[in-house]
Write a structure and sequence with these properties.
Elements (H helix, E strand, L loop, with lengths): L1 E9 L6 E7 L21 E2 L2 H11 L4 E8 L8 H14 L4 E6 L3 H5 L10 H7 L2 E4 L20 E4 H7 L10
Amino acid sequence: MNYGLIYNCDTANGPGLRVSLFVSGCTHHCPGCFNEQTWDFNYGQPYTGQTQTDILEMLAVPFIQGLTILGGEPMEPQNQPEVLALLRAVRAKYPEKDIWIYSGYTFEELQNPKARCYTTNTKAILNLIDVLVDGRFIMAQKDVTLAFRGSRNQRVLDVKASMTANEPHWMECYQ
């Protein structure tokens, strides 16, 4: 996996101050995407063990609320092994930090074993995160007044409640 950027004090991609990892590679190619350069799986630099160590060190700061992974597309099948390894390391070291993932894939697609995005890692990833912002960006539904999403079709989901109910559950404060 490659990544384009890491922000260590991000306020745009989830509540509070966050560490945000922008992975490379996305097959959605949404018109109007704010981060087109990350569509290329080879964009940026290789994600390595040192990258993971750096992220874990950034998360050690007490005022950092959590980790956000976006892109590109973290849930592309080829990105999932490294995303899962990072999530396991974060949960082991910082169980109190919250974890958000932004994905163009919907919760329903990520739950469907026949979907292109579904791998042996998908459920494990979902079980380790707190919030999923799902759905492709749709330019015709762009709305800059929405919190933590770019278009009205996208949802900010409570993943634990969604997994328990096996259906999407909004984070109430973002409906």
